Structure formats: C-alpha cells, structure tokens
Amino acid sequence: MSLYTPPSYDVAIVGAGAAGLMAAIWAARGGAKVVLLDGQPKAGGKILISGGGRCNVLPIESRDPVEASFHTSGSRNVLKRFFKTWRLPQIQDFVRWELEVPLVEEDDNKLFPESGKARDVRDGLVREVESCGATIVYDWRVTAIDKADANKGHTGFILHSESEEQVRAKKVILATGGESVPATGSDGFGYRLAKTLGHKQVQTFPALVPLTTNDTDLTDLAGLSLPVEWRAMVDGKEVARGVRSFLFTHKGFSGPAVLDASHYVIRDNAEILISWEATSRQEWIDYLQSRARRNVSKTVADVLPNRLAALLVERSGVRGEMRCGNLTRSTFDALLDQLCDFQLPISGNRGFAVAEVTGGGIGLDSIDPSTLESRKTPGLYLCGEILDVFGDIGGFNFQWAFISGKLAGECAAKTE
Ligand SMILES: Cc1cc2nc3c(=O)[nH]c(=O)nc-3n(C[C@H](O)[C@H](O)[C@H](O)COP(=O)(O)OP(=O)(O)OC[C@H]3O[C@@H](n4cnc5c(N)ncnc54)[C@H](O)[C@@H]3O)c2cc1C
Predict the structure, then answer these.
(1) Partners of residue 228 on adjacent β-strands
(2) CB of 30 within 8 A of CB of 414?
(3) What is the pLDDT of residues 13-72, one digit of tens each?
(4) Is 18 a pocket residue for ligand 1 (Cβ < 6 Å)?
(5) CATH 3.50.50.60 domain position(s) in the chain
(6) Which site in 25, 127, 209, 327 is 20 to 30 Å from 38, CA atoms measured?
(7) CA distances from 177 to 40, 190, 388 (A)
(8) Residue 167 CB less than 6 A away from ligand 1
(9) 14 in ligand 1 pocket by Cβ < 6 Å?
(10) Which parts of 176-270 are beta strand (E)?
(11) Statement: residue 337 has pLDDT above 60
C-alpha cells in the first residue's frame, strides 16, 4: 500500500495558454485553491509568437453582430450567449488596468501592447495568476485524467503526469488548445483527454492558414501586398466576403484576407474570388470608360501594382497597347474578370504547422453554455481553442480564449 497522498486542489487547470491563465485568475479570485499544469517549461508559448511577436491582443471594436467574427459548426445562438458574459470594452480594461499592459490602436481594428512585446501580455497574465494565489507547475504534462473512485469515498478527479506523479482535484478545466503549431505544446492531445471523459470531437482542420498554389506567375509576385475584397463561393453561391490585405508569398497566398478566407476553402471546398484593390466591377467599368483614349496597360497600372497589372492584362487576352475605348464587349468582360473576379488557383494549405488556429474541436453541444461545464462529465469544464470555436484574424482568438477562460474559471470555483 502506498503512503503517498497526491496534492489536492479545488480546481486543476490543464494548459497555461491564454484560456488556462485566465481561468486560473478567475477561479482563484472565486476563492478556489487552484493549480495550473502545463507540459511546457513556460506559460503562454502561443501568446509569445502571436501577432509576429507583438500580440494582437484584442480587436478595438466588435463587429455587428459580435458573433459574426467567430466560427463554429455548433449553434450560433449558443455562441452569441458567451459574448454577453464579458463585453469587449471590459476585457480591454482588464488588460490595461489589471494586467497593467498599456495598449495602442493600429489599423484594421487591432489592439497591441504599447511596448510592441507579446511577452508583456503573457507576463501580465502569469503575474496576476500568481498574485491571486494560484500555483503554476511547468513541465507537468497530463497524460490521463481519471474520475476518482467513488467506491473508496473519493470525489473529483486524479490527474496523471508523464513522470507518474498525480494531482487530485474536485474540478478540472481543460484548456489544452488545439493542434496548430504543436511546438508550442498544444499538439491535439487535449482532444484525447476529452474523449476519454466522454466527449466527441468535431473533425479538426487548419484555419487562419496560408494557402498554396502551383501557379508560378503568381508566386513570382512574392512580397507584393495590396488590399482586396475576397468572396468565398460554394456551388456558385457566395457564403462569405471581406475586405483586407492580401500578400503573395513564395508558396502561394497569405495576409489577413487569405487567412480569414482559408477555412471556407479547407472545410467547405469554396472557391475564392478576388477583387484587387477592393474595387467593384462597376467602379472599374466607370474608370475604364472614362479613359477611352488611354492604353489598357497604363490605365490598369495606375490602379494596381505594375507587375500584377501586367499579368492580369496578359491573362485577360487583351493587348495592353489597345485603347480602353476600343475593347470589344467580350474582351472588356475578360479584363473585368481578371480585375474583380479573379479566381485564386489554390493547390492546398500550409497545414497545422503554421495555422494560427484549429477549426473544429470539442462540440458546443456537449457543454452547458452558461457554465462551460461538460454535460458528459460533471465537474469537468472546457475553454479556449479546444472547443469548436475560432475567430477571424484581429485579436478575436484571444477574445474567445479570455471570455471562455473567465467563464470556466468562475463557474468551476463555485461550490454547489
Ligand atoms: C503564429 C500565431 C499567431 C497568432 N496570433 C494571434 C493574434 O495576434 N491574436 C489572436 O487573437 N490570436 C492569435 N493567434 C491564436 C491564439 O494564439 C490562440 O487562439 C490562443 O492562444 C489559444 O489559447 P488557448 O489557451 O486555448 O490554447 P494554447 O495557447 O494553445 O494553450 C494550450 C496550453 O496547453 C498546454 N497543454 C496542451 N496539452 C497539455 C497536456 N496534455 N498537459 C499539460 N499541458 C498541456 C500547452 O503547452 C499550452 O501551453 C495566433 C496563433 C498562432 C499560432
């Protein structure tokens, strides 16, 4: 018989990313004795690489409706409820005043730490976790979670580590993230833990991920960036659109426009149509008609970067030296198709190794939306990217991690 008694807590949180750190703060503020376990030697690995090391920590404003910036295969009504629990201005205040991270506004509705350092956000969260009295244990990778043996008078859970240590907890919060950029510690193992506790996993896929192409004329434009309007089309019907910046890369396409559009390609097999410089078909018609005596190449190059303009004119089959006013109806239409209905030739995507988030995950139907407690295993809570929710580019994913972390932490701390 072993005389060893594992340390015991009210709440054990698995994963010290943005969601787990936030959950720890609110569980500890709720009076619970909290331990936060992470398999990595440091907390918030993904926060540190976010926003190119600068961390786009939140959006400046929500879209209308707020849930329009978020994606799930579950109920949108359920999703909507989460955003009422902690409004964006209050989250911004929390980061500014309670984490003591001054913020600056940047273009495209983004908030960054004034210092330009993602580390400040991570350090602010860790500092607050510790000052609330919660314990963080690093290099403690959870390999299994068992329900305690009720026959022996135990309640709650026993968590096991790789080095065969144990922790007991009345409640557990799973905040293990998704499976994107596995080097940060979130390698999809959390889904296995959730499955052993009765949960089903909605098929996962890389989201907010650069797309690839075999079209070398386009990869030759690597480095070129410009605003576009993108439209995702499924069976000829538009399912989504947006206006953001687009980047040509050596492997294909990236930038906020492409990252936002990528999940429609990967999940729904959508085609992506691009209007360069976000100029509408009617605007191009008016513009080209008003320059009837000018040559086509120069007229297009006055609006678009030269190399892109030349390629699009060539692909339309129009001779660049022709005057705009001499274009036939069909060549005019062919040129317009290149300028504002350009179909991206997509060969694939860069995968989980570089995807900013994971689409899919543990379905919202298996949790109580008012508490984030599992319907399958009472006492277990889930938050952050492990759930089947992700946001667009622009700080929306930290917004989700923070909202869901706070809700799970507060509810897990309550003793019924
Ligand atoms: C390159 C990149 C840039 C990004 N930039 C932005 C941005 O600027 N703005 C934005 O809003 N979002 C951004 N994101 C997305 C954002 O970082 C994530 O959505 C968010 O960090 C998810 O938080 P999380 O706490 O749910 O999961 P994670 O941050 O993935 O944290 C999960 C934690 O769980 C730990 N863990 C996993 N399994 C175990 C286990 N078995 N035992 C113990 N610990 C475990 C991991 O080590 C990790 O620390 C970016 C993502 C990437 C990859």
Answers:
(1) 244, 276
(2) yes
(3) 999 999 999 999 999 999 999 999 999 999 999 999 999 999 999 999 999 999 999 999
(4) yes
(5) 8-205+359-413
(6) 209
(7) 13, 7, 11
(8) no
(9) yes
(10) 201-207, 211-212, 225-234, 237-248, 252-254
(11) yes
pLDDT tens digit sequence for 394-414: 999 999 999 999 999 999 999
Amino acid in the structure at residue 50: S
Indicate if ligand 1 lies below 6 Å from the C-beta of 358. no
Are 173 and 409 spatial neighbours (Cβ–Cβ below 8 Å)?
yes
The minimum-distance atom of ligand 1 relative to the CA of 16 is: 49
What is the domain class of 8-205+359-413 according to CATH?
alpha beta
Residue 293 phi, psi (nearest 5) = -90, -5
Query: For position 6, what pLDDT does the model report?
Result: 84
Ligand 1 atom closest to the Cα of residue 185 is 47
Residue 121's nearest CA partner among 62, 59, 45 is 45
Peptide bond before residue 369 is cis, with ω within 30 degrees of 0: no
Q: What is the mean pLDDT of the chain?
A: 96
Q: How many residues does the chain have?
A: 416
Minimal-distance CA residue to ligand 1 atom 45? 15
Q: Which residues are within 8 A (CB) of 39 and not within 5 positions of it... i.e. 6 or more apart?
A: 139, 140, 141, 142, 162, 185
CA distances from 377 to 9, 120, 193, 257 (A): 18, 36, 12, 39
Q: Is the distance from the beta carbon of residue 177 to the nearest atom of ligand 1 less than 6 Å?
A: yes
Long-range contacts of 111-116 (CB under 8 A, 24+ apart): 111/56, 111/57, 111/58, 111/59, 111/60, 111/395, 112/51, 112/54, 112/55, 112/56, 112/57, 113/54, 113/55, 113/57, 116/54
